[in-house]
Amino acid sequence: MPKYSSKALLILGVILISVNLRTSIASVGPLIPFIREDLGISNGEAGFLTTLSLITFAIFSLFAPFLGKKLGHGKAIFLGILLLAMGVVLRVQGGIVVLYLGTALTGIGIVTANVLMIPFFKARIPEKIGLMTALLSTGMSLFAAIASGISVPLAEGLGWGWRGALLSWVGLMVLALLVWIPQLGAPSTQKSTVPAPGKNVWKSTLAWQVTGFMGAQSVMYFTMITWLPDLLIARGMTPVQAGLALFYMQLISLIGTFFAPNLLLRLKQQSGVIVTVGVGYLVGFSALFIHQEWITFAALTLIGIGSGASLSIAYTLISMRSAEEYTTAKLSGMVQSAGYVLAALGPLVFGVFLDLFDNWNLLIWFLLLMTGQFLALGIPAGKDQKI
């Protein structure tokens, strides 16, 4: 196969992998009322579906680098998408126990592929790492928005029910697996310049700074997508309007998601970009104190662009702050593990405070507090240094 054709197939495979990394999560939230009614479960049991996914991410992020080293990144990513597809099929086959088991399996599959994509880029196509990171994060964000937007129409409008709506994404997963087949026999790793097992990222201050930065942006993102609609409904929007506002925020995030990686790679230090995004967060979150619809949408524009840029910045820093491929994989596992622990706790912590104080302004203060962590850890993480 000609070299240009092989590279084009690799890029297409990356795009198809990326679009599958959030659909199985984003499609669940809007369908929770259908799931709850059909299975006769409580709100807590239904809400645990999202928490279970994030807990699974946190745990298995630590094992993905070793799996990548054992199988090769190309094969391990293929296995991850295969497990994801199996989990999506399994979770619609029965009651709540099967739903939980399938959800856990989807989480294992997603995080295996997610953790290994960055080191895969660094090994296979390092000259295009900015483009690849942009495609990865943009595909994830775009299809998360699409999945959250069309789940109810698929379930209710087309009469597929919640099971059919969740199952519908398997087709894209099968297509991704087919297109990824050429990467199974291709060399997906390079010899490290240091003896295995590489650097101990858990003892690195820089690694913890990148991890804390990833955690802050994850908490803000998952807290917003969990609680923003309820906040807007409490202020007088209809559920449909609140859903459209969330969709708008996710859609506008694609601007930051796509353009941030190549900008970062052109700069010796990335701290300035992180400060700019952090200031945008501060202005956007503060504007939510004002109860006017046009100001709310202006705020969501700033927050959305910042959210997309933040995800790309976090992924790009994983690559830029590690020298060797296996260290990159270990840092990716560490960053995403701790990041998803914080992401799982964020919506839960705010929910507890909301029950205690019944004050929606606490959501804004909480997000402003996380912006402080975003800046405090992001500025040093953005300096030109390596683990």
Short descriptors:
2 domains; mainly alpha; single chain; Growth Hormone, Chain: A
How are the SSEs placed, and which strands pair?
Blueprint: H1 3-19, H2 23-26, H3 32-39, H4 43-60, H5 64-71, H6 73-90, H7 96-124, H8 129-157, H9 161-167, H10 170-180, H11 205-234, H12 239-266, H13 271-287, H14 293-320, H15 325-357, H16 361-381
Helix pairs in contact: 1-8, 1-10, 3-4, 4-7, 4-15, 5-6, 5-7, 5-15, 6-7, 6-10, 7-8, 7-15, 8-9, 8-12, 8-14, 11-12, 11-14, 11-15, 11-16, 12-14, 13-14, 13-16
Give an overview in words.
The structure is a single chain. The longest helix is centred in the last third of the chain and has 33 residues, at 325-357. 79% of the residues lie in helices and 0% in strands. The protein folds into two domains: 1-190, Growth Hormone, Chain: A; 201-387, MFS general substrate transporter like domains (Growth Hormone, Chain: A, Up-down Bundle). The protein has helices at residues 3-19, 23-26, 32-39, 43-60, 64-71, 73-90, 96-124, 129-157, 161-167, 170-180, 205-234, 239-266, 271-287, 293-320, 325-357, 361-381. Helix 5 (64-71) crosses helix 7 (96-124), helix 5 (64-71) packs antiparallel against helix 15 and helix 7 packs across helix 15 (325-357). By secondary structure, it is an all-alpha fold. The protein starts with a helix and ends in a 6-residue tail after the last helix.
Q: In the CATH hierarchy, what is the class of the largest domain?
A: Mainly Alpha
Give the total of domains: 2
**How many strand elements?**
0
Specify the helix fraction band.
Answer: over 70%
Largest sheet: none
Broad structural category: mainly alpha
Number of helical segments with 4 or more residues = 16
Distance between the termini: 37 Å
Radius of gyration in whole Å, from Cα? Answer: 20 Å
| Reported CATH architecture of the largest domain | Up-down Bundle
- In terms of quaternary structure, the protein is single chain
